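ping. complex inputs:
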Amino acid sequence: MPVIKDVVCTFCGCLCDDLEVTVEDNKITKVGKACKLGRAKTMGMFLHERIEKPMIRKNGKNSELEECSYDEAITKAAEILVAAKRPMSYGWCSTSCEAIEKAVVLAEVTGSLFDSTANVCHGPSALATQEKGAPSCSLGTAKNYADLIIFWGCNPVHAHPRHQTRYSTMAKGAFTPNGKKDKKMVVVDPRNTDTAKKADLLIQLTPGTDYVLIEALRAIVNGHADVLPDEIAGLPKAKVMELADMCKASKFGIIYFGMGITQTRGRYKSGDNVSSLLSDLTQTNKFVMIGMRGHYNVTGFGQVAAWETGFPMAIDFSRGSAYYNPGETGTNDVLMRKEVDAFITGAADPGAHFPQESVKHLYKIPAIQVDGYANPTTEFSDVVIPAAIAGVECDGTAYRMDGQPIRMKKLIETTFKTDEEILTEIIAKVHELKENGGA
Amino acid sequence: MAEIVIKNGVVYDPKNGVDGEKNEICIKDGKIVNNVGVGAKVIDAEGCLVLPGGVDGHTHCAGKINTARIMSPHDMRYSPIPGLSGPEPGTKLLRPQVGYNTPNTHAIGYRYSKLGYTTIAEAAITPMMARHMHEEFESIPILDKLALVLLGSNWQVMQYIQDGDSEMLKSYMAWALLASRGYGVKVVNPGGGSSWTWGKNVTGIDDKVIDFDVTPADILIGLAEANEALNLPHSIHVHCNNLGVPGNIPTTLDTMKLLEKVKASQDRQVMHLTHMQFHSYTGTSWMDFASGSDQIADYVNKHDHLTFDMGQMIFGPAMTMTADGPTEYRNARMFGAKWSNYDQELEDAGGIVPLSYTPQHFAHATMWSIGLELALLVKDPWKVMFTTDNPNGGAFVNYPEGQVLLMSDKKRQEVIAGFPDMTMDRISLPNIDRELDWGEMTVMTRSMPAKMLGLEEKGHLGAGADADVAIYDLKPDKVDVSVQHEAVKKALSFAKYTIKGGEVVVQDGDITALPKGKVYWVNAYENGIVQAEKDRLITDLEERFKKYYSMQFSNYMVEDAYVPRPVEIRPEVA
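pong. complex structure:
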């Protein structure tokens, strides 16, 4: 049976690249080495219902989606974008960098707002980087060196299941040959999560007090423990001292952080303070951090957007040049202000993940969806364009959570167009319409 | 492709002994030729300066710069040089542009072309991150590119040197260039990148590297000898230990002396030392820090085994990015600046910190002077490349500023007049009145970088060269650069014509076409390494990937898809 080795998993930001996929008669029958999430993603088209045909609503939001040709759907999409005064392009995080590059071009030629899923995820991490930088390393460096692993506001047992065996807690590296025995593991989380159950130390802080805890750690590390109160972030001071001592005792520490830092009170200021803490700790030992990115190529979106436009997210092309002001130009900022009058999304599901107010506005404006599967976003989309699944039905580039690019493989043949092809055709149609004086 | 003949230009082509002569330049099929047909398109240069396209042999333009972009939204809006910086909307032809020190990829291509530059060398990429660099290369229009691959703190390199296994070292070097589709070997703070993963550093070329029984000197000699054994077109390209540290002169001189014993495999240096300005400091602290350019220049004038580039500082904001991780941490702590760091498994370190240089501070004023002193005190321009270590010393769009400074003592004295008194006993620049002529300037910006890199088709206008030509709106025989330096700077900033591969890409300072550039890389592996040695290397690498790397061996090498227009160079096997 033909087994494809070293397949790149396209579920989460771990981008495990050692999967073994069995293909029989152009069907994936077995996925080896993957976690539950990765297996479900890789075999997805045989488990879930695909969007089989391009579809259009011909009579407004309340009418049914009707099947049509790719050409019709692509033409309709281009017409919507060209007619709009304030179009928005959002998502593009579970697809290839090659597709994202085309999404940038489409946003430029239509004067769109352009943003990624980081808007409701790790966007504040980028803002923290702009404030204080990002002291980081590759996942392999962490595997080889880290003797202290802190999971802060993240739960890899469920969200990044192979992270601990491949890169962190259990991984064996050059200076951690015995894996877990050579490492200490800390979890900072208000909940006693399944990840926390395995920790050497659980710091169960009061929700929303992350900034306070980081600040207290900085005070201790910099020799000012005496100014701290007896209770910090809902914890006894002694507990915080214990964590600080573990940090000081380690040779190479790493903080893996998730939504518990980026989407709680303090937001980017917490991330900014984490950077400062790492800089303080590096005076005596080495400390770095890596954001636990969710969508497998959301890191790639930030990279492609940065080199193509100068900015990683929340970009506004309405002036012709790239303008960036998160808080003003982020997807939900603009949707909440009800500014947007047309919407295109791909490889993401705003319908399921956006605040209600934003979704309500999306119901009122023409919306285009490019995706392999139906999801809540399909419910309000006026044009639905089915796409091949990147990393399964077409190849391309994705960036791991640590910024490492890896080439995804094509495993099976498909008749669906790729995101890159669909976007390229929409761009051509937009040019055509503009030359003919608009839709 | 259309034939072109450039008439009535004043041509400087030092490699071919042409020094300001009214020669015709003929172009056919993207190459310089001796004759073209009568139907050739005529470009009347009207007595203007005609040079080979500029070659930037050391610039940070793809890879690490992207993290710098993410750190720098402020830079995207900054526009001190209208037409070469800041936000500009897209046009029918052009993509939108932003930035100054860290412009987007499209702006990098447009702006180098406007300056008359046509080839750039990314100065520092690890093999593992090369895929990212090639993605950015592909997005930079017009220019030809090549990459210098970081091997100076690489575990394989240090292990094979420690084992005294020169064959494995050679095989790995060739394989690393193949795996990254790289062109030459870069060494940054040898050994220090590995020590920095523990937050430590090395302090000189004889210091021991943590975890390996090697010294920076062992690494330098090992890599230089392997480089010459493989007969690579470029020599090793070295960023010395102790960058930016007052009193680093002995380390720099030790490094230069160390390489005297290595024999070059071909007619070029055995080592290129980069951004020399940052390595030419006397003193013991920032208080007694002063220029040591005389010591460096004296050594370089007496020896022929090395070349260097200036690393000229430009006043104003800069973005420092280097594989020298400990230096960036020190910068960040010293200035309270934001700090990004990246320790790449088994391969090297890296850091990014924004800085700003001001003529009001004696230390910055001294550093500015040192870069110019170095270029002016070294007699032979074929030993010096003009750089700002873009964007570490300053953004590349300031090259005309730096070049005019070398050509005008008057302009230099005007700047020096504004320096604080504390600067004056630290520098020798006020007493140096040498002004480079057009021939010398052409060497430092074109011919020398091409020769130093071993790019035979670049940096000259002889038959067979790539048809990369810059024409500037200034008449060398009518303009006195020393006095009219502002006008000259403007002319150098916006070429009258830039021709890339036989196509006019800039006319009157505006981009007119967007061809895609080539990527040069060196394949010394296929023919250069015997099968038994290949097998031995791959067996060892497979084991190392299993144990230490975080990705599969089979997924590591840059795929052909990332280098769609390669120029593969296969060195002759010794």
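The domain at 49-118+296-435 of chain A is CATH 3.40.50.740 (Rossmann fold).
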